[in-house]
Amino acid sequence: MRKKISIVGAGMVGSTAAHWIMAKELADVALVDVVEGVPQGKALDLSQAQPIQRSDVHVQGSNSYEITANSDIVIITAGLPRKPGMSRDDLLHTNYKIMSDVISKVVAYSPESFLIIVSNPLDAMAQAAYKLSGFNRERVIGMAGILDAGRFKSFIAQELDVSVENMSAFVLGGHGDTMVPLPRFTTVGGIPVTELIAPERLEQIIQRTRDGGAEIVKHLKTGSAYYAPSAAAVEMAESILKDKKKLLPCAAFLQGEYGIDGYFVGVPCKLGAAGIEKIFEIKLTPEEDAALKRSAASVKELCDVIGV
Fold it and tell me: HSE-up of 150 (CA within 13 Å, CB side)?
């Protein structure tokens, strides 16, 4: 029997994740959204691409969570973007209500599933999903670091005019302005990037990585990134379903690791059949440690607003 991945939210991130999963023939897909007709139409379109892609997975869409029953993994992308005149706290409370509704239904239909959270603000929504679901921390994972590391690697590969396959990078911390790229753990063909790019230029690339999402929004004007975020979520799902045990930067609920207790923060995780099978603690410099603590403090501030 094939594995099953449900995706809550059939917007650009959710539907593109469904496309990656179908193209990889990774699992059957259930696409759910509150907007009538959207998940049905996108699932039908994907199904009609299957003969062309040579993919035999089953893709279905619905406004009901019944189709998500017995999912192995649930990728949650549901949530509203910040609108003009909406405060940060308003956005937090609105998306927390959405997450509460989603989690109650997901848990009812798939109590043994793994949750991959993509909804923003990422770290706070992952915290909410963890608290609301009652799942252990190994089964609730936030997608952030893979996306941020992907942006970092992309910019470095462009700068050096080398293959992205040569790149290895890590980005720790919260998803957003407080992320902590680690240049000394970033390599090109095994060579530290600090040996290949001047410090001033490298700092510019790091800042562009932090601003990566905003740069895309500026270009699109009426939307935000979806190819890279969805690809990152699917890489996480694939590592779990195939028990690949990839070492990936993910938002995880820390219980003392890195001196942080009780919050989701981006750290190196081994993802396998048991979800987060290990959190790797690497020795940070005082500056890196301070930046990670600042990032955790910003996550705490968001979580305090919604009481999770």
Answer: 18
